[in-house]
Amino acid sequence: MPPNGSQARRDRILHLATTTGLASVEELSRLFGVTASTIRRDLARLTADGRLARTYGGAVALTAHSEASLRQRTGEAYEEKRAIARWAAARVRPGETVLLDAGSTVGALARELRATKDLTVVTTGVTALNELADSGSVTVICLGGTLRQVSQGFVGPLAEAGLERMTFDRAFLGADGVTAERGICEAELRQTRLKELMARRADRTYVLAHGAKLGRAPFHAWATLPPGWTLVTDATAAPEAVEAFTARDVEVVVTEPEDDT
Questions:
Q1: Global pTM?
Q2: Which domains does the chain have, with CATH numbers?
Q3: Which SS3 state, helix, strand or coil, does residue 186 take?
């Protein structure tokens, strides 16, 4: 049930902006059962207090939405990421050439691929490089470029030029957030540009995102994806979040943590 009182409603709006990044006046009006004028007054108050920044179309976004570092993300949803990584690794066949993005979930996939025979891995991620550096059965190719220290991934024209000269059996992409309508959300355009190129160069594209990332839009840079991509998530994903993707003909795989006992 929506919270009572204007202050409680504003606090809830702020929480929604923190977790999902964007919301329209119309959406907030329906959610809280109040008029659009009331929501606009709430947004004006939050903006005046310096807690939100208004954007076009009545949307709102947090003024300071920091990007978590790779070190911070590595410890989050560990079992869920591991289940996603195991499912993804099972798709890879010996003799294939696969493309691995930067990120903690894709890094977990790299760990699962260490023993795969006759495999070529091309990557932009430092985590994947570290996981596969001493594998005797995997050929590793690093796409160079400018290193983003916060994500431990390479971006920029050098990485893009390398991608243009290769094709891949499969590409595995990470995401700060992913929505059915817009695709992958990231902190900056260099990342989203690179992810779009990755998807275009692969026969099959998989987005690896644990349940909390579905429907999230914490930033304003987006990567659109070609038809036929697959979302791989876990059982913590809300059913309505999964349904938003399947309604748009996106294949969704929901993984379960394995019992290692």
A1: 0.75
A2: 6-61 (1.10.10.10), 70-255 (3.40.50.1360)
A3: strand
